[in-house]
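Subject: Sanity check before I submit

Could someone independently write out the structure tokens for this chain? I want to compare against mine line by line before I put it in a report. The sequence has 290 residues.
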Amino acid sequence: MLYSMTGFGRAEKTTPSQRIVVEIKSINSKSFDLRTRISSQYQSKEIELRKLINSNLIRGKVDLTLTVENTLENDHAINKQAFDNYYEDLMKIANKHNISNGDLLYTVTRLPGVIVQNNDAVDENAWEVILEVIEEALAALNHYRADEGSATFDDILSHIRQIETLLTKVDPAEEERIEKIKTRLLSSLEQLQVKGRVDENRLEQEMIYYLDKFDLNEEKVRLQQHCSYFVDELEKKTPSKGKKLNFILQEIGREINTLGSKANSAVIQRLVIQMKNEADKIKEQLSNIL
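---
Independent answer below. Compare away.
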């Protein structure tokens, strides 16, 4: 099963005191990168939020928007102790300097800490409800990711199977290729004979050179092994496998390139080009896989 790194999730809930709306969206990224837009009263919870979202989404560039609206009519209170302290101090100053205290009430209510918003402090019970809404949004986002991943799985599998199919076409093309190599080798032998006595050391070196340079068996075996390994990893149930699949794809690409450099055949070169095209399509899809 595959998960895309692209997704969107939204959840909301209304309680007797609050309306909570959570929106989370993610796009592909090599690592986990979280940006939050939340009320100042919940800034202290950002580390907790980061851990929760990271454990759920693992990788991706993530944007979280948390909106909490207070639905109570009376959403503020007076800090009486702060009011009394300010009022007494200001009265003393006013009396000492013969200043009118007509606007003193208004002045005190504007001072820091006198009028307190009821939602300034984090209510832990309310926070638990908010976490539930966040988890609902995460579940919706992961469902979106799974749907996209499922479609991508089918596409990637079709491309890797196509590489395997193209690989099976290399063997039939090898007969003509081998005949050409034999012709070249015989031509080299004839040139040596024309010059007189055959240098056995030189002949052995020529044979080893051609056998090593143009033998494709090792590359074909390794390429098939890498393709099989890729499919095995692709079909595993682990949620995060994009990085490992990318590594295996790099190995597949190396074998395809080596096959091309050794081909010495127009038919096999065409097959190699098609394989590279399929590998490029897989690479493009893997860039968005978790």
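---
OP: Matches mine. For the report I'm noting this point. The longest strand covers residues 60-70.
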